[in-house]
Amino acid sequence: MICYLCLKSIKEETVWANFLSPQFRYTCDDCLNQLEEIPPPFCKHCKKQASPNHQKCDDCKRWANHFGEDPLDQNISIFTYNEFMKEMMARFKYRGDYEAVYSFREPLNKAYTTHFAKKHYTLVPIPLSDDRYETRKFNQAEALASLLKKPIHTQLLKREDTTKQAKRTRTERVLSKNPFHLTNHPPEKILLIDDIYTTGTTLRQVASLLKNAGVKNVKALTLIRS
Amino acid sequence: MTSSTPPLIEDLARKFATKLLLKGELDLSERRLQYLLDHAYLEKVTSIKSSLNFHQCIRCFNRNQSLFGKIPRQNNTPIIYCKHCIQMNRVSSEEPLYRWVGPPPMRHRVKNPMKWKGELTPLQVKASYEMIKAIQHEAKLLIYAVCGAGKTEMLYAGIEHAIQEGKRVCIATPRSDVVRELAPRLRRDFPTIHSAALYGSSTEKDLNNHLVIATTHQLLRYEDSFDVMVIDEVDAFPYHRDQTLPKAVERAMKQDATKIFLTATPRTKQKVQIALNQLPTVSIPSRYHGHPIPVPTFKSIFRLSKTLENETVPPSINQWIHQKSTSNRRFLLFVPTIELAEKLSAKLTIPHVHAESPDREYKIKQYRARNIEALITTTILERGVTFPSIDVAVIQADHHVFDEAALIQIAGRAGRSAHDPTGDVTFFYEYKTNAMVQARNYTIIKNKEARG
């Protein structure tokens, strides 16, 4: 058994409690300890860290001003973007180690059950452009969404090829043209899935598109809030 | 030498020849790539070989099935990729490697490339002579030299000979710290040749250069490339443990290339080969400055591991540190684990480095520049790096990470400078281990051999 994050072998001690049913694990304790859940206080709206007890952080207020009304109703993120997570994302997304995603199955499912279960959201992973998909061979948001074992809607949106968000500054991102367009009629309640919430531009580009098409409620579940 | 090769093709040949590269590493436009494939300048090489669900990575020789991953696809079989070499970007059943099959690139010959004016000891001269002989006969040679024997300088004559003959030389070493230390020295002493220093985060490019200084892992990108391969620290961890690296080194060499092994502490395998006369060997038991290697002092500390667990520093270690700082001696403290390095660093307010510390390059540079007086380190600084005039102590020398070779190497960090050839080496331990005793015996025996 190897750890899907650090690739070192996991040596599980055999004790009376587990000798009959050895537990399969994706992640070793060392790696689990380095994944850092977002500690309170955080913004209730977007999970931004260390915003004191206000309902909304300054970023969210700015978004609300920008749109008149924030198209994204809420974002839930799980982990902070610490050094370890940066390394893991580099390996998962940029080097393309798909199976690293399995290490996030439990935390993602936990967050989903706490916040969104039984609320009839349709899961929509943020799509990749065709070019990006061709080089990466998978969509990281779809990989995350598929961990939830719920039907996912992948035929709703399309994305044009643009520079990577990660290579742009905040202003460039916020002012960039919306690269998404709808290809189908959207359902009423949508839960967007993505790997990382940085400025929230991507999610809001999609959310405003959906709201304009008549969607009532758009929320987001992202693995990381940076 | 094909003088008719168009300049663009010649440029590409320099970049790609004798390598196995990913599409991303080629960095070509789709159109140009297609042209080069259609006109037989490049060919595709299957990167993952699969038969009956048994996979094998062609780039890194990985055959450990738990290190192959699957990317699911709709209406299709999953893509198989290799995790063992994912650090160098992904190879998969859908992503082939590319091999240059066009005209080979040219390399200009350099006459008298070496500008080093230093003097060699008689033993170093002997080793240099043996190396030149090995290069002439396309043979292999083990240079068995103690730490501080001046291994780098011993290689100079051989490298010079090879380059004058139009041969391509590679120095492969297990650690990137060593590449970063060696490269500037070699560039200073061979100023007119083209060289490339390759390690994980380096941005240098090897354009069919005369000399490549690389970490062993970088050789996974090469095939039939080098005439002379110098393998530094053959006994060191990645090369010794990782079965795939020796294969990668073999592939990176041309068919009848010269192999030069360097070591201070051969493993049993090499010792057997030496004893059976299967591996021609030159033995250098003395340091270049002729002074003996410092013999380690043993200091036992009652309940050492318990004391350290309680985050207190035993008085004798404190005393050792105090004594060094009052007499203005710079030192390295070796510890077995990253955790202990961090704890002690906080306790003693001495900076620490380990394999995962992000600012390790910077701290080592600071230490080398004498801006830092002391450094706590794990075994990453055990070999290859030279700091003149330092003392070393090993805390928990009885820990299993400190095997005989590691302890010999650590002891070899002290007394490297001719101006200050003595150094203090102290092992702090709780239970005496065989490794510690063997390491001390090694220094005593080598010092005896050196006296003749």
UniProtKB/TrEMBL annotation, chain B:
GO molecular function annotation: helicase activity
InterPro entries attached to this UniProt entry: Helicase/UvrB_N, Helicase_ATP-bd, Helicase_C-like, P-loop_NTPase
Keywords in alphabetical order: ATP-binding, DNA-binding, Helicase, Hydrolase, Nucleotide-binding
Annotated Pfam families: Helicase_C, ResIII
Domain Helicase C-terminal: 316-452
Matches recorded under SUPFAM superfamilies: P-loop containing nucleoside triphosphate hydrolases
Domain annotation Helicase ATP-binding: ranges: 132-284
PANTHER family reported in the protein's UniProt record: COMF OPERON PROTEIN 1 (PTHR30580:SF1), PRIMOSOMAL PROTEIN N (PTHR30580)
Protein name as annotated: ATP-dependent helicase ComFA
Organism: Alkalibacillus silvisoli
